[in-house]
Amino acid sequence: METPRYTAKEFASLLGISKAALLKMESEGALPEPRMDDGTRVYEPHAIPAYLKALGRPPLVAAGRRQIFLNFKGGTGKTSISAFYAFRLAQLGMNVLMIDLDPQGHLTQCLGIDHGAFEATLYNVLIERTEIADVVIDTKMPNLKLIPASLDLSPVELSLTSMNARELRLRKSLASIQDDYDIVVMDASPSIGLLNLNGILASNELFVPVLADFLSYHGLKILFETLTTIEEDFDFLLDNIYIFLNHFNASHNICLRAREALEKHYSGYLMKTIIRQDTKIAEAASMGMPINQYAPTNRGAADINSFIREIYPNLPIAF
User: Fold this and answer.
1) Do residues 168 and 31 share a domain?
2) For 3-22, how does the pLDDT look when each residue is reduced to its tens digit (9 = 90+)?
3) Does 75 reside within a domain?
4) Does residue 99 register a pLDDT over 90?
5) Rounded to whole angstroms, how far apart are CA atoms 111 and 149?
6) What are the two backbone dihedrals, phi and then psi, of residue 29, each rounded to the nearest 5 degrees?
7) Looking at the domain assignment, is residue 316 inside a domain?
């Protein structure tokens, strides 16, 4: 992952004004002055909220949202999409915290972060009572932070079993820092162990990536049955559930039939946005780069943008 920067023209376009208007307002002191790099104006994503405020625009998001990407079926592309989604939110100016809930650490790798670059995971928070702020690490963006994962997280399920309030430990830990972030994005492993249960109960929104096949469709039934049990046992209700099709190929009949089944049985949750099949997405993930950096004009990047517009229809920026 590289540190994203905008040119004056790109930044003005994002704000919905002309480059001339941007430079004029900066010279008049109506807008913040950008950072200068060898005499060139450099605009960085974390500066966007200050510019919006100076322009009299509303904030990017009204209240913090805690989101988990989860599917009990593996191989749905959940991790790469959650990583690209969180990066793009940060690139658009939001203050984002990512949490890797999978001991395989694939989310951490998708951001190009080596397993040797950190010393603690959620294991230290949930089991050893380390302050959660102390395990947050920086990325190359000031407004994108990460709680990483590695195989050191593996014993957490067994260790949680004998602990009091074991299902709510992540929610309680997050309470101390969640106001520091606009969005918290969690990537879960394809299972329903205690760690993922902690993730669900710490969230208010659920994202479910589904492949256009009937195995994924069957997995949804199990997921919703599990959610019903969680709601009853913990008096808990998610604010939103978003199901979205991933790796979709409209030329395949099985994809079209699976989409029709989803529209029939899960229409209240199914997103209009579809993430189309795209080899660039897999390439970007393998390179540890978000798709919006690796191939910003590709359809994968366009689909992530559409995904975000559907989730946040009132964003006061143009992208």
Assistant:
1) no
2) 899 999 999 999 999 999 99
3) yes
4) yes
5) 12
6) 80, 10
7) no
Q: What tokens does 189 get?
A: 């492993």
Which of helix, strand or coil describes residue 262?
helix
pTM: 0.94
Q: What is the per-residue pLDDT across 234-279, written as a single tens digit (0 to 9) for each? A: 999 999 999 999 998 888 888 888 888 899 989 999 999 999 998 9
Residues 252 and 120 in one domain: yes
My answer on whether 113 and 37 are in the same domain is no
Domain assignment of residue 319, yes or no: no
One-letter amino acid at 33 equals E
Q: Is the distance from CB of 10 to CB of 49 less than 8 angstroms? A: no
Q: Which domain holds residue 41?
A: 8-54
Render the burial of 128-152: b for 16+ CB within 10 Å, e for the rest: eebebeebbeebebebbbbbbbbeb
Cα 188–chain centre separation: 11
Which H/E stretch holds residue 97? strand 96-100
Domain boundary among 54, 74, 90: 54
Task: Tell me: do 217 and 275 sit in the same domain.
Answer: yes
Q: Give the total number of structural domains in the chain.
A: 2
Tokens representing 84 are 């690209």
Length of the chain: 319
